[in-house]
Amino acid sequence: MAARDDKTQDPVLREQLLLTRRGQAYFSRKLHELSDAEFDEPSALAGWTRRHLIAHVGLNARALTNLTEWATTGVETPMYCSPTQRNEDIEFSATLPVQALRNLSDHAAIHLNVEWRDLEPDAWSHVIRTAQGREVPVSETIWMRAREVWIHAVDLDNGGSFADFPAGFVDRLLVDVLGAWDKRRDAESLPSFVLAPSDRAEFVTTGSAASSVTLRGKAADLAAWATGRGGAGIAADAGDIPAAPRWL
Question: Is the pTM of this model over 0.70?
Fold first, then answer.
């Protein structure tokens, strides 16, 4: 029997799905390299053990599955039933036995992937609403998941690195982060930045170039800094490397 393939034949969506599936495989590999005892150790995110992080990534897949089912059925199915559900579910799921956490991670990812695979081509443009209240086409869930699996694979603190990320993902991530800063610049008085990747032909800028801070380094290192994962491998043209503003 032939393997079932994505119903969409859109080359852009198929490329995005492939990137996200590669990220899921990367996250799963880093997770399954951990021993059961290592689940109790801290993650790279302050205040979270690896248990919390693994629970979060698994539950995120479930929440995005809700949005995909919304696009399929037309019945509003939010990511979370209440503003507090996300954190409550993470705290509870972090207490599960290790094998249950492994199963949550694997099974939730498979379910989301099946929903994407079977989504009718015309349904990808159906509008859903994220937990932050943004109204976007359901195709946005692919990028939302890509960010989760690639970046949190590093946050497992088990040898993952932004240097392992595909170049296209790093480039889009930089644009995503700086775009988020631009939207909040006036409201939060955010500084301006010029990011100058040594391994790319073009700079990435945000805010006013006249008053900007220029940071240099490899694109992957600049992406790690921009997402709040430290400033290793980068340098500022003047002064110390500043802390990156909040991203999400």
Answer: yes
